[in-house]
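Wed. Picked up where I left off yesterday with DUF3105 domain-containing protein. The coffee machine is broken again, so keeping this brief.
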Amino acid sequence: MSKTSKKQAAADRKARIEAMRRAEKARERRNRILTITLSTVIVVGLAGWGVYAINSANEKQEQKSAAAKKPISGEKTWDAKKLGRTHVAGTVKYPMNPPVGGNHNQAWMTCNGNVYTKAIPNENAVHSLEHGAVWVTYNDKATKADIQTLADRVAKTPYTLMSPDKTQSGAITLSAWGHQLSVDTAADPRVEKFLTKYVQGPQTPEPGAACTNGLTAS
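Structure written out below (tokens, as returned):
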């Protein structure tokens, strides 16, 4: 091979190497661009998901708060600020029956899922409501099956108590501090809503106060 041919071959080889290097650099640039672009998309996606998750959580919390403030259909309410909370001796004349608050006896009825088979003093039961209990009462209009259903539900629910009350107008009444609901049957879905909402609910004047070691009755 002549010197000219050798020089030409060397030049061609050098040109190929340079072309290969340029191609490699171009691939590296493309890979970097793809990596940066993908990373950006992931970061933006995660940020977007984070915002969505926060907004969704806030929306659910707002809906929950709104639901908590919304009265249950048929529910009666009284201004808690106007319900007395003084401990008194003797009988108290309440403006509603069963009472949902007001001055009461210093001793509360034990309300740790207690089912009383006889009427209990209003003054002691009201003290239980002050502690965040829901008081379930019934009269002769309630069926034996409904009474048993309610008794079973109360028995497994702390901060509840149940007793008969022949003087009330509705067959079944659920009372919490400042709130009351009357229903015809234990199967009414509002019974569960009331218990869920008001057992140690936001209406409780003394949240966390004891429902044990109070008065008991047969």
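Quick read: The chain has two domains: 1-70, 76-198.
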